[in-house]
Design a protein that fits this description.
alpha/beta, 5-stranded parallel beta sheet, disordered N terminus
């Protein structure tokens, strides 16, 4: 029986450490769990910020971490979007409430210093002398300990919070929070000796200026009324002091259970606590983290190496310029000369070591640790769709969404069990009977909220400038402004800030690209806009981009615009002229960029029908002097252009045309580097899309 238990225990241990079954956020959280062995000093902890655009699954990531922690790791959750506006004290009160809940095999955490501070802040001591205030506060505190019955305690807290709200010491939303969290916090303070120690702590902090415990709490009360912001550092310090006191008795792994953390050895050790904060880019989130960090640093100045055990894992849908002293923005993958900033890692690649050790050149790590949420892999998309990962439905959804979780779930609902015909271009239209196609795409774009911080720019204007912000040469941070003046720059900056632009590395070059889901949605909404409207059309906007001075100097940019306007003959002529002149690897890269151009051809027509029409068009426009290379190129460019549309269902016949075209071009080349053409054929043959 004992041996069977050992075998089961080993099996559980192996499952616990099978990273392939874990999400990136869960893996990261486990890597950050190690706090210390009993003989070691505590270590500094990061403020992790998981980044992703709207729909990237940020809340889901926190939920998976919370589920993985279970009762084995003390943790708390707070959402800055659901509670608006929110103060640091309110957030701390809610987090203390969550941390002090009942944990299996652990006693509840006791936030004695913080709770006493809340009671003192709300006590009605106005118009009392100092001695009278001390006596009133003493009776107030003792009254809570005598009111341990639920109804009495709730009534006492209700009276206290109502009075504080009427005197405008507490905003109404904070008063509601206090009424909810104070009773359970007070119940954990069952012994008077605990509060006596907490009162002495309030007397020992610098703000108390050597006062007695009751004098210190009266001073906190006066400060809260005269300068409400000054009570925040005091109460934040109290909260962190409670964490440091409670942590050692509540942080050992559960007995007889496998430890999930990435501990460096099997010795007895302590785990960190985890605080999960959602939407810190909303009002109050950044201020909360700033207040928390300032309190931490202030404590360490007087108590070096006495770190608290809170790992903060937050989410944000926006990039914060404050992080750029240590980290490069996701759309800027290369560093400047002598720049010590690091590339923002993805969750699966992030860990404590990459945050702490790699920052030695900056005299210590940044308090911030931004990481990128990974898009869904195709096997994860397949599980959501309940189909095989090589099916046409899965391939279409993965291409269209770029693995954006919210979009994958939306398309799973939209497509249902419908059959996906090869090359179909209308499969992602919303089945809205009350909306024309243009409004259907517009509604989808509204769901993404890309310009919520630009109140003077609406969705229609975003759609209008789509060609100027989605052009592939505009995404990098060093891109020059193109057409339409400052509004394009503002919109593009907002798209970067809201994390729709990410960097990519391609050999020796570094690029950045706009997310395919928002790119194609914007361009399709423009293409489907009725021509009779007063707003600029797809053709007018791409003509403007084509004739921009910066575009005119670059034949590749010009070809991109020409293809977007359907002028395939001009594009074939360019690549035919360059075929023998340019290294084939560079020639293929330029071809890939140009054939990524959008189109405004009818969504009701399948790719195979449009392919034949495009090839015939090139024959009609250039009937004379057609070289064998041109014949192949017209097929290659037409098929590549249609296949690059991520909203069109994949068509195996077009992929076969592309593969054969590259193979046919190789024997006709006069250059020695034809291996690049064969490599391109092999690569396209292996690609699912």
């Amino acid at each position: 029986m004992q041996r069977a238990g050992q075998v089961i225990g080993r099996a559980q241990q192996e499952m616990m450490f099978d990273d392939s079954r874990l999400s990136g956020p869960t893996m990261l959280a486990r890597r950050l769990l190690w706090n210390r062995a009993p003989s070691e000093q505590s270590r500094a902890q990061p403020v992790v910020v998981m980044l992703g655009p709207v729909g990237a699954g940020k809340t889901t990531a926190l939920q998976t971490i919370s589920q993985d922690c279970g009762d084995g790791v003390v943790h708390a959750f707070f959402d800055f979007e659901r509670t608006q506006p929110v103060t640091t004290v309110e957030a701390l009160a809610q987090i203390a409430f969550n941390l002090s809940r009942r944990w299996t095999a652990r006693r509840a955490a006791r936030f004695t210093r913080f709770t006493l501070g809340l009671i003192a802040v709300q006590a009605q001591l106005d118009e009392l002398s100092h001695d009278q205030a001390k006596e009133a506060l003493r009776k107030e505190i003792e009254g809570f300990f005598r009111s341990q019955r639920s109804d009495q305690l709730i009534g006492a807290v209700q009276t206290l919070a109502d009075a504080a709200e009427k005197t405008k010491i507490l905003p109404s939303v904070v008063a509601v929070t206090v009424k909810m969290v104070l009773p359970p916090l007070i119940r954990t303070l069952a012994r008077r000796s605990l509060t006596s120690r907490a009162e002495r702590w309030h007397a020992d902090i610098p703000e108390a200026e050597g006062a007695t415990p009751l004098d210190a709490l009266v001073a906190l009360n006066r400060r809260a009324r005269a300068h409400p912001d000054e009570m925040t550092p005091w109460l934040t310090a109290a909260f962190l002091a409670d964490v440091r006191e409670n942590h050692p008795r509540m942080a050992t792994p559960d007995p007889y259970s496998p430890c999930a953390c990435k501990n460096p050895s099997k010795i007895r050790h302590l785990h960190n606590w985890i605080v999960l904060l959602d939407n810190i880019d909303h009002e109050g989130g950044a201020r909360f983290l700033s207040d928390l960090s300032v309190a931490r640093e202030r404590h360490l100045r007087h108590n070096s190496d006495d770190h608290d055990a809170l790992v903060v894992i937050a989410t944000s849908g926006r990039w914060n310029p404050e992080w750029e002293s240590a980290w490069r923005p996701p759309w800027q993958p290369t560093s400047k000369v002598n720049d010590l900033s690091q590339v923002v890692p993805r969750c699966r690649d992030a860990g404590y070591r990459s945050w702490y050790v790699n920052a030695a050149a900056r005299n210590g790590p940044s308090r911030w640790y931004p990481v990128l949420l990974e898009p869904l892999e195709i096997d994860e998309t397949a599980r959501i769709l309940e189909v095989g990962q090589f099916s046409s439905r899965c391939t279409l959804v993965q291409r269209a969404t770029g693995g954006l979780p919210q979009a994958v779930h939306a398309l799973a609902h939209l497509l249902g069990n419908s059959e996906i015909r090869p090359g179909g271009r209308d499969v992602l239209l919303r089945p809205d009977q009350d909306l024309p196609e243009a409004d259907s795409w517009r509604r989808r774009l509204c769901d993404l909220g890309p310009i919520q911080r630009l109140p003077d720019i609406d969705i229609d204007e975003l759609i209008t400038v789509a060609p100027f912000v989605t052009a592939p040469w505009l995404a990098p941070i060093g891109a020059t402004n193109i057409v339409s003046g400052p509004r394009v720059g503002r919109i593009l900056t907002e798209l970067r800030t809201t994390l729709w632009v990410t960097g990519t590395s391609d050999d020796d070059t570094s690029n950045a690209e706009l997310h395919p889901w928002i790119t194609k949605t914007m361009l399709t909404a423009l293409a489907e806009r009725p021509g009779s409207s007063d707003l600029p059309t797809y053709e007018a906007q791409f003509e403007a981009l084509l004739h921009d001075s910066a575009t005119g100097d670059d034949p590749v940019r010009r070809a991109y615009c020409q293809l977007a306007l359907g002028r395939i003959g001009d594009v074939v002529s360019l690549f035919e002229a360059d075929f023998h002149q340019r290294p084939h690897r560079d020639w293929i890269r330029r071809l890939s960029l140009v054939t990524g151009a959008p189109d405004n051809m009818s969504l009701a027509r399948d790719s195979s029908e449009l392919y034949r029409e495009l090839v015939d068009q090139d024959f009609r426009d250039h009937p004379d002097d057609r070289s064998p290379i041109r014949n192949v190129l017209s097929r290659l460019i037409a098929a590549s252009w249609l296949m690059s549309n991520p909203f069109a269902a994949p068509d195996p016949r077009l992929r076969e045309i592309i593969v054969n075209a590259y193979r046919e071009l190789a024997p006709q080349s006069r250059r020695p580097d034809v291996a690049a053409l064969y490599d391109a054929a092999t690569q396209r043959a292996r690609q699912l899309f």
